[in-house]
Amino acid sequence: MNLKDELCQLRSKHVTFSGRYVKNQRGIAQKQKPCDNCSGKGCRICNFHGISEFDSVEGLISKFLFEKLGGTIAKFTWIGGEDKSSLVLGSGRPFFVKIQNPLKRNLRLNRIKLDSLEINNLKIAHESPKKPVKFISLIEVKISTEFTVDAKNLKKLKDLKKQSIVVYDKSGKRSEKKVFSVTYKKNSNNSFIMKLKAEGGLPIKRFVTGDDVSPGLSQILDTQCMCQEFDFLDIEVQ
Ligand SMILES: [Zn+2]
Predict the structure, then answer these.
(1) Is the pLDDT of residue 1 over 50?
(2) What's the complex ipTM?
(3) What are the pLDDT digits (tens) for 40-64?
């Protein structure tokens, strides 16, 4: 190691990793609530981590990395998100995590189990992405409907591929999401399962009810639809 490299190392106050997580069990939130005392800035009470509990995806990965590397704050960049009750299967959801002030910097793992979470392909990344990362999600959604839906009605779901889904966020900003494939299976007169391959970031629950998302499933099927559960079968980065 020459002197220049050594100085570089000393000046660098963080290290960034990329990886994917697989969630095989329902009931784990993606994000951890910040420390009550400091709102996430880091204080004595939370040991300067900014979080004081470790029961989410964020918490479990942070705890593991703090044990391995030391460090204060772990800052995550997620490639999409899911509900607490959602599973994340297949190759898992990609994430980036920047660890501030690590004591050690080297860690590379093919696979590790943390409770009911599995972390794959954890390795040092150059830095967290600055621009939004484009990705495609394969999602399975359980839907219940107010009125009976028949085969003819459900067939209309195939039209989702022909048009973009228009999504408005809370501030009224408009975006469009593409649907690449749709399959479905009727469970009962008032419920069906839909498998959807769609552009990442489509808000699934709002897409089902049709809440500031057009067309929503309620609109397409002409009956109020409710999302009972949704799972990610795979996530593909473009
Ligand atoms: Zn704190």
Answers:
(1) no
(2) 0.99
(3) 999 999 999 999 999 999 999 999 9
CA dist 33 and 30 (Å) reads: 10
Q: Which of 5, 36, 55, 83 is catalytic?
A: 83
- Between the CA of 75 and the centroid of ligand 1 the distance, in Å, is 14
How many Cα atoms within 13 Å fall on the side-chain side of residue 195? 7
- What is the whole-number distance in angstroms between the Cα of residue 37 and the centre of ligand 1? 5
Residues 6+ apart with CB under 8 A from 117: 21, 22, 23, 24, 28, 57, 60, 61
State the pLDDT at residue 29: 97
Residue 60 burial class via C-beta count within 10 angstroms: exposed 0-12, middle 13-18, buried 19 and up:
buried
3-125 folds as: Alpha-Beta Plaits (3.30.70)
Return d(Cα 235, Cα 232) in angstroms, integer. Answer: 7
211 is annotated as an active-site residue: no
CA of 122 to the centre of ligand 1 (A): 27
The answer, yes or no, to whether residue 203 has pLDDT greater than 90, is: yes
Q: Which CATH architecture has domain 135-237?
A: 2-Layer Sandwich (3.30)
